Amino acid sequence: MKSISGKSLCKIVEQRGWILKRVNGSHHIYQSSDNVEIISIPVHGNRDLKVGTLRALMKVIGLTESDLT
């Protein structure tokens, strides 16, 4: 699986219609525009997200590996 940084994932999420609600420390909190789901993306500079964290977020967002390019 290709790993990406939290900043990159935030850009992808915003393109998919998620709205940034707040920033709590280094975590960006997004809410979906069409339902009540909330996700928290850790943004620690340009460090890549851990694989488990990335997979869990992708599952909630509805992304596939091909969407990460």
UniProtKB/TrEMBL annotation:
PANTHER family according to UniProt: ADDICTION MODULE TOXIN, HICA FAMILY, SSR1766 PROTEIN
Protein's UniProt name: Type II toxin-antitoxin system HicA family toxin
Single GO molecular function: endonuclease activity
Keywords: Endonuclease, Hydrolase, Nuclease, RNA-binding, Stress response, Toxin-antitoxin system
Matches recorded under SUPFAM superfamilies: YcfA/nrd intein domain (SSF54786)
Family: Belongs to the HicA mRNA interferase family.
Pfam families (UniProt xref): HicA_toxin (PF07927)
